[in-house]
Design goal:
Order of helices and strands: EEEHHEEEEH
Strand content: 15-25%
Number of strands: 7
Radius of gyration: 22 Å
Oligomer: single chain
C-alpha cells in the first residue's frame, strides 16, 4: 500500500517523535532527490521513501553540498593539497581552483557510519567527468585512513541537517509549507470568469 509522504513527514505530520535516516541524497537541476527512512514512534517500524522535491533547493543546502567539494577532490586525487587549498573558515567561499568541480550526491553505509561522495568535473573540452570517492568510515580505523575524516564527518552532519530540513519543507523561498502544500487551482489569466448557471431541465 502506498502512503502519501505528507501524512508522515513534513509540517503537517502528526505531532510527536519523528526520526529520519537518510540513505542517499542527490542534487539534480538544483532539486533534491532523496532515499530515506522515517519512523514516527519507537514502537513502529521505519518506512522507506524515495522523494524528489519539486521546489528549488534552499541556498543553505547548496552551500553545504559545495563544502564537500574539497573532500571529493582529495579523495579522488583530482587536486594536490596546497597552503591555499581549503575554503575560508569564516565565509566558506570555495577558492577558484574548485570552480570545475561539483558534488552531486552522497550515500551512506554501515548504518550511517561512513559516506561515499559523488560529483563531476567540467573538463576543458566541455565534457563532464563523473567522480565517485572511496568509502570513508567515521567510526573505525582503516589501513589508509582519510586524513580529514573528522572534518568530513562534521560537514556531512551539517549537510544532513539541511537535507532533513528540505524533507520537512525548507526550500528556496523559505516557506516551510512549500514542499507539502497542495497545488493552487488553475486560473487562466486571460480568460474572464464565467459563473456556471444551472439550467432548468426540459420536459
Amino acid at each position: 500500500m502506498i502512503t502519501p509522504l505528507h501524512a508522515i513527514v513534513g509540517p503537517a505530520a502528526p505531532a510527536g517523535h519523528s526520526l529520519i535516516r537518510v540513505q542517499k541524497a542527490r542534487l539534480k537541476n538544483q532539486q533534491l532527490q532523496c532515499e530515506f527512512t522515517e519512523q514516527r514512534t519507537d514502537d513502529v517500524p521505519a518506512r522507506t521513501f524515495a522523494l524528489t522535491c519539486q521546489e528549488t533547493a534552499h541556498p543553505d543546502l547548496l552551500h553545504w553540498f559545495a563544502q564537500l567539494v574539497p573532500h571529493l577532490c582529495l579523495l579522488c586525487e583530482q587536486l594536490p593539497e596546497t597552503p591555499t587549498y581549503w575554503p575560508d573558515d569564516e565565509t566558506g567561499i570555495l577558492p577558484e581552483h574548485f570552480a570545475a568541480f561539483t558534488v552531486t550526491g552522497l550515500s551512506f553505509g554501515h548504518g550511517g557510519s561512513g559516506v561515499t561522495l559523488t560529483g563531476q568535473r567540467q573538463l576543458a573540452a566541455g565534457k563532464l567527468l563523473n567522480l565517485t570517492s572511496p568509502y570513508v568510515a567515521f567510526d573505525r580505523e582503516e589501513l589508509e585512513p582519510y586524513a580529514y575524516a573528522g572534518l568530513l564527518d562534521a560537514t556531512v552532519q551539517t549537510t544532513l541537517l539541511e537535507i532533513e530540513a528540505a524533507l520537512r519543507g525548507k526550500c528556496t523561498e523559505c516557506r516551510q509549507l512549500g514542499l507539502f502544500e497542495p497545488p493552487a487551482p488553475f486560473t487562466a489569466p486571460d480568460e474572464p470568469f464565467v459563473p456556471l448557471i444551472p439550467m432548468p431541465a426540459h420536459a
